[in-house]
Prior knowledge:
The chain is about 75% helix and about 0% strand. The protein has a two-stranded antiparallel ribbon. The protein is mainly alpha-helical. It is globular. The mean pLDDT is about 95.
Amino acid sequence: MKYPFRLSHAITWLRFPLIFFIIMLHCYSVQKLEGSHENYFKVLYPFSLWLGETGVPGFFVISGFLFFLSKKAYSQKIKARVHTLLVPYILWNLFMLALYGIAYAIGYPQNINGRSLAGFQFTDYLRLFWDRGSYDNGNFVPILCPLWYIRNLLIMSLLSPLIYYIIRYARELFLVAITVWWLTTYHNAFIPQTILFFSLGAYFSIFDINPLRIVSENKAIIIVLFGIFAVGDIFSHTVMGTPINLQLHRISLILNIPVLLLLADWCVRHNYTSEVLPNSAFIVFCVHYPIVVLLRRICISKVSDSSDFIHILLYFACVIVATLLSIGFYCFLERFFPKVKNILSGNR
């Protein structure tokens, strides 16, 4: 099987695992436990943060690669993304806003970023499609929080001619500079993360480099580096902290991506594939968040005083239930409302 053909199938295979990592992240982050829960954090760190935070960077790399791989004109690409990204973005945020409105109407007061819906003006509702009322050093999110990725991807698509010329002439120097910016920016660093990983994917397409061929030819060194930084990241966060915890973590996230590409290629070549899971990825990405929020709030409110062991079990239970419910929602739409599914998924 030739590398271009294998790469295409590996990218398709990766779509659902990356979504699953995002679900693992959100099942940890949407509702924090109060008090000290050291064992809870130590056990869940490799799942919720080490793997969980790999999902969005992985998608940005794929998006950047595929955007510049296409030889269509810029105007055609932007027109396509209106249907595949902008329309679903608006509809899913409307859906989330409707859920808030329904909860408010039936007697459950709703606050968004500390403000009650009762005090919202028309402009406040419009702003929810951009951010929830807080810029937060560039880490702002729309009302359906995970869709910040879609919003930033739309922005990168619009800026793609600029990205092309910067990468074309600054080459690796640009990637190194953005990597240093990301490594030294604290908090979530959504803006440098977006630019870095989208540009990293774009780099391979702009210079006609097959990333699967590169990682396959350098498999041994990539796996060794992956192992070193994975151990360093997990050890520094769960056993002994260091002044460079953040940098270890983010370098580890970068190395996770080529190893996942190798894993995807291996699974495809050995026929460990599914048609439903990759096709469901976009719907699962959009619908999982309100499900996760509801599940985590119920679990934590009902058993807030339980042991770390119980909370760990509930975390994994929520990951599994949220994933299955999200896939079930996709299957329901596919079976009974295929046209609605096509609109909500951007015809994926």
